[in-house]
């Protein structure tokens, strides 16, 4: 039996909004219902709806104008041919990658400066589990995500951790079958090791350098994907 994929509420909401656009044959520039109206229509909270709108805005399907409303941005981009879906998701991942470089890059630096001996052991154990799963040909997405979350925790900056948590739905796109490929970013595994080694010896310059190599690798993989 295959593993059941976890689906976030905002992903379901984004699909419902897209269905609404299609069913009502809305065109570019047409106005969507208000946030309050859509929370009632879909039976969800405002935070889930707003996260769905952030995603749809990132892939150019809707445009949110403060004080004016929510509008269909480009109805042609919304047509669900495979090419448009891939190009939209590639653009989305690249935009989130820029945020990762800034925010997670800072957490890498802080973690290398502040990580405790106990957290180093925990990170090492996580990497060993990562290696075990990889060598067994099993899904490594969740242990990979756990590795990055441990580093963010080790930064010791609760505000930075909170900001990254607030975009967790977008962030997790890198770990939950990006572009429909579960193992798309397997090539980044060696950078996890070099990054861990730098963090463990409190060399923040090397840790950030290895992190940026990982981000460069991910960016190249996204751009090259067809």
From TrEMBL:
SMART domains (alphabetical): FCD, HTH_GNTR
Q: Does the keyword Lipid metabolism apply?
A: no
Q: Give residue ranges for domain HTH gntR-type.
A: 7-75
What keywords are annotated for this sequence in UniProt? DNA-binding, Transcription, Transcription regulation
Matches recorded under Pfam families? FCD, GntR
Q: Does the keyword Transcription apply?
A: yes
Q: Which domain of life is it from?
A: Bacteria
PANTHER family, sorted? TRANSCRIPTIONAL REGULATOR, GNTR FAMILY, UXU OPERON TRANSCRIPTIONAL REGULATOR
The protein depicted here goes by the name FadR/GntR family transcriptional regulator
């Amino acid at each position: 039996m295959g593993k059941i994929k976890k689906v976030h509420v905002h992903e379901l909401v984004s699909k419902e909004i897209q269905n609404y656009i299609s069913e009502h044959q809305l065109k570019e520039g047409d106005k969507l219902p208000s946030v309050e109206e859509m929370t009632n229509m879909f039976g969800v909270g405002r935070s889930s709806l707003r996260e769905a709108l952030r995603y749809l805005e990132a892939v150019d399907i809707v445009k949110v104008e403060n004080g004016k409303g929510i509008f269909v941005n480009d109805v042609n981009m919304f047509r669900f041919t495979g090419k448009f879906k891939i190009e939209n998701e590639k653009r989305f991942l690249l935009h989130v990658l820029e945020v990762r470089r800034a925010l997670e890059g800072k957490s890498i630096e802080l973690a290398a400066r502040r990580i405790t001996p106990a957290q180093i052991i925990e990170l090492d154990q996580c990497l060993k589990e990562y290696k075990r799963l990889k060598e067994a040909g099993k899904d490594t997405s969740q242990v990979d995500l756990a590795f990055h979350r441990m580093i963010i925790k080790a930064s010791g900056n609760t505000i930075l951790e909170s900001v990254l948590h607030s975009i967790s739905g977008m962030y997790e796109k890198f770990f939950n079958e990006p572009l429909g490929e579960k193992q798309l970013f397997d090539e980044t595994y060696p950078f996890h090791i070099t990054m861990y080694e730098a963090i463990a010896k409190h060399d923040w310059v090397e840790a950030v350098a290895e992190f940026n190599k990982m981000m460069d690798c991910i960016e190249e993989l996204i751009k090259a994907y067809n």
